[in-house]
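Researcher: I'm comparing several assemblies side by side, and this is the next one on my list. It has 743 residues spread over two chains. Same procedure as the others: predict the full complex and return the structure.
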Amino acid sequence: MSAVTATDRNAKATAGATEREPVLEIRDLSIVYSGDVKAVDHVDLSLAPGETVGLAGESGSGKSTLALGMCRLLRPPAVITSGSVIYRGSRVAAGGVELLTQSSKELRKLRWREISIVFQSAMNALNPVLRIRDQLGDVLDAHLNLSSEERHQRLEYLVDIVGIPRDRLRSYPHELSGGMRQRVMIAMALAVDPEVVVMDEPTTALDVVVQREILAQIVELQNELHFGILFITHDLSLLLEIADRIAVMYAGKLVEVGNAEQIHNQPAHPYTQGLLASFPSVHGARKELAGIPGTPPDLSALPPGCPFVPRCRFATDDCRGVDMNIRPVAGSEANHFTACPFVTFESSKSTTGEAPAAVAATSRRRT
Amino acid sequence: MSTRPTPPEAVDATGLSAAPKQADAEVIPAAAARGPLVLEARALAKDFRLSQGLHRETLSAVRGVSLGLYQSAVVALVGESGSGKSTVARMLAGQERPTAGQILLDGNEVQPAQHSQFRAYKGSVQMVFQDPFASLNAVHTVRYALKRPVRLHQRAKGKEAIAAELTRLCERVRLTPPEQFLAKYPHELSGGQRQRVAIARALAARPRVLLADEPVSMLDVSIRLEVLDLLDELRSQFQLAVLYVTHDIASARYFADDTLVMYAGELVERGPSEDVTQQPAHPYTQLLVASAPDPDNLAGELKPVSGEVRRAGSALSSTIGCRFAPRCPLAEDRCRAQSPPLLPVNPQRAAACWRLDVAAPDLLNQTQTEREAIKI
């Protein structure tokens, strides 16, 4: 195998853009901890090439479990009980690869080369006793067969694209600031040109200004290299800005999926509506903040039906019997799904009059 | 400009005195409208010793910070990590000894870090910490955590009096039913509930000042608002003077009367929260506001920001000139040579920047027009 340059795939990405078959498709995935805690419950989610899908949810909602499970990185007591995860990269066989049935040897080849992860805490994810050069080099050695000259060039290219001075290759992680370390993590995730990058709260531990710089960098790199991003965060305000599509997760279930405009202008599920009214913004006029009463549910003792019932202001007795499969939102655009069959209709009906124009585009491409 | 004598400057370990600095401009805080001054810091400074011996190095984490906390009002202290905002809170709480400067409670100078004054001071000034997972003792129940301050500070005697007070405390922070929560251990509670216990523990001393160091940053987004609302309710109910330390300038906008912005150990801007966040004057505040996520910006175009974070004390040479100068797009020679004091923007606002005429021309013009209007 040799390094695939970005331009190679550019051509492929534009050629395949017409049908946009998902590069990653999660179907009916369920993950259970020690038998009775349903951390991920029948989740369907797909990621198109070069798309950014945001996965929003509070701690304990199962968003990280979903990402790790999808990459087969979970350890017991977590067990994947159902579902399939199909990866259709340009370097694998035409029909795609079922990740959940791969042997560990096969998985080793796919991991990082095809799907890489940027973890939240760069402090813990980097090896403190290895220089940056050696850690990045390890990734190259594991997947590519490069001459020492090529290897050196690739290392310099990698630190260049994330904006780290080249002499920092000699540094140890502790010699770098938090933002720098996170950039190293991003460089490492992009080292062998994967087509899917999972970012698990990549900027949560950073200051706002640094967070902004890194996000801008990620967006820029994505425009150049066309990898798909699954961006996991609890910060919905951030996702609205950077994600094409957003999936909102609550108690292990997806409660709403839609593009950023739909989520912002016509949130269907009461939980999404609550989240949107929870964070203060420094921009724009002052708005009334409502928040969400109550506390996140205990996953080991979920009530029947909708898990949001105890905190939902629209809840009725019918909600306890509702089946939590997501379905298209009545009265909204295509590709807008929610798990709530009741309030959805009401709320979308009430807001369609105000902002129908904003939801015209189904996929937002950045220029 | 004010003709007040300059306060004595902290001398750093290299023996070089920082360049003589003009006095900070006096402003009338919006918080002062809520009630009388309770706790005041005057020119607080803190140096941390990094190494000992011949080459003694110090890090000046906080320099010349003055602020006032007023009854029934919230003052926010905003800054990035390493800006010294928590150190200011810790000095006010008596957990760090200031290197220079004064702390005044009701106009009387106090030394909260001094052993003999510590407990009495704690009766008036309490702190809520960032991490509710670490600030509660894991091997004791909620009852234990709340009982001690009730006994120490309220001098409550008798089982019934204490039990009644514990129930009242739990109800105030909405941990109901109290009996159930009092018997629980911290690991049985969610993050939001733990932070409520921490707030109840602070209230148990019946303080007049509450120092909240990032009270919600460890909590989930959906829980944050509730805890902030609770703090706001307690503020008005008990007429608490609150210092809200945060890195999130958006929450300061909604929660605080005044916002003070810190950068590398110094105050760079102060004024009413709405004004500071909507029309920031200092280039750093402008950067901070521009970097905050804008959920209404759906175009997906991220506004670029520039500059690498410069830590306080990253260079000793930073004692000369404006500490923001290396990142500032407007920096000129004067900025690198002379440290700017807080200069008046309008009667309520001040910003430490030599180039305010370029950084915030509209604001200055506005003030000018207002002044002329008053003269006429």
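Model: For your comparison table: Confidence is low (pLDDT under 50) at residues 1-19, 307-317 of chain B.
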